[in-house]
Amino acid sequence: MFNKESGLEKFKDAETIIGASIKVKGNFQGQGNIVIEGSVEGSLKTGANLFVGDQAKVIANIEAKDAIVNGEVRGNIKAKNYLAIGRTAKIYGDLQYGEISIEKGATINGQLLLLSEEHKRSDKIREERGLKENAKEPAV
Amino acid sequence: MHVYIYDDYLNKGKYNRIINRLEIRLTDLGLNGKIIRLGAIKNIKGTIQNEIKLGAKTIIAVGNNQTVNKIIGAIIDTDVFGDFQKKTLLGIIPIGDDNSIAASFGIKDPEEACNILLARRIEKIDLGLANKHYFLNHATISGPGTIINIDDYSLEATARGEVRIINLLSGRKGYRQSNPHDGRLDIYVRTKSGDDTHLTAEKFIITNPADNLLVDDVVEIKTPVEIGVVRDRVNVIVGKDRAFE
Predict the structure, then answer these.
(1) CA-to-CA distance for A14 and B199, rounded, in angstroms?
(2) B35 and B98 share a domain?
(3) Residue of A nearest to B196 (CA)
């Protein structure tokens, strides 16, 4: 079952924190852990972990490695590894995940789809290719 | 040649003993050099630039954060900056309060500063750039109505508070240690209600029609302001206990 304490531990030193009074618009992308307590409109992507707080309002498609969602999300969520849905979460969109836990009280209005091993592998290969191509690009 | 720039507040009697002890220590270590007292000269920029032209190997700010900022402001983006970057090091001897810059470089008191000058451990430090104004520490603007455009997204602060762009952390409580040679600036939005936002970026545009950006607590710039970072711009003599890697 979803362990809130252990789930939050890795966000203590998150690289990016969007506070409750901040509105983000556009394609928000990061490499490190991200905490969202405010509002986001557009898309939200990180190669690491994402935490959506209970007061947060996200109108965006989300992609992360691990994701903990406690707030409102209007959009699809793809957590390649682990997706934890807290009891205060309200999700209007499809969920893709490697593993999932859902707390009692959460609202989900969408389809749940388990990512196959093959899917996860192809995502990983795509990521590695992307990294290699980026590494080939000469420094400006 | 070492050139010591004494800030004007050090003329007060209460600093006499510290200054005397400092000068004895510097002489003992063979680090004595030319002393320039800012209170006695009108053209600070011209005087400092002249010393660099004359071949100063080390310019040492004797004073506090403002002293360091005055020296950086006198050198940066001038004809002598090329020479300064190649041949001259910046040292700091902290005296009195408001010395968080020295502290983040691992320099805690005048005596330790002398030992650090002798050891000559050098770090290249980034500078922030707001339009055409360089800054060592930070730039600030009030929170509500401020929009920050980074890559293809924007952040809008909606509550009362402050937006702070940090290159080198100057001892503010509750902020994380920033790294002044990672080629990135830290952006903090802190509201009156204690709500914090933090992220890092290389360059961005900041806009607020109702307020100006205040750079290093000195220069006010009307927005929109393009903010970036210039890497490895100043060579600073630092202590081994500096606050960054």
Answers:
(1) 9
(2) yes
(3) A19
The residue segments making up the domain with residue B51 are 2-120
The verdict on B12 touching A (C-beta cutoff 8 Å) is no
Tell me whether residue B117 is exposed, middle or buried, using C-beta atoms within 10 angstroms of its C-beta: 0 to 12, 13 to 18, 19 or more: buried
* Sequence letter at residue B20: N
In this predicted model, what pLDDT tens digit does every residue of A41-99 receive, in sequence order?
999 999 999 999 999 999 999 999 999 999 999 999 999 999 999 999 999 999 999 99
Specify the residue for token string 């490695």.
A65
Residues B110 and B140 in one domain: no
Q: What is the longest distance spanned by two Cα atoms in chain B?
A: 57
| Three-state secondary structure call for residue A129 | helix
Q: Which pLDDT score is estimated for A139?
A: 46
Cβ <8 Å between A28 and B195: no
Q: Provide the number of structural domains found in chain B.
A: 2
Q: Which of B120, B137, B153 is the last residue of a domain?
A: B120
Q: Average pLDDT in the B205-212 region?
A: 95
Mean pLDDT of B91-104: 90
Whether residue B240 lies inside any domain: the answer is no
**Residue A2 pLDDT exceeds 50:** no
**In terms of domains, do B111 and B147 share one?**
no
ipTM of the complex: 0.80
The DSSP bridge partners found for residue A35 are A17, A51
Question: Measured between beta carbons, which residues in chain B are less than 8 angstroms from residue A21?
Answer: 143, 157-159, 161, 189, 191, 193, 195, 197
Instruction: Classify residue A2 as exposed, middle or buried by CB count within 10 Å of its CB (0-12, 13-18, 19+).
Output: middle
Measured between alpha carbons, how far is B214 from A104 in angstroms, rounded to an integer?
A: 49
Q: For the whole prediction, is pTM greater than 0.95? A: no
CA distance A52 to chain B (A): 14
Instruction: Give the number of other CB atoms < 10 A from CB of residue A22.
Output: 25
Percent of chain B with pLDDT over 70: 97
pLDDT (0 to 100) of residue A138? 55
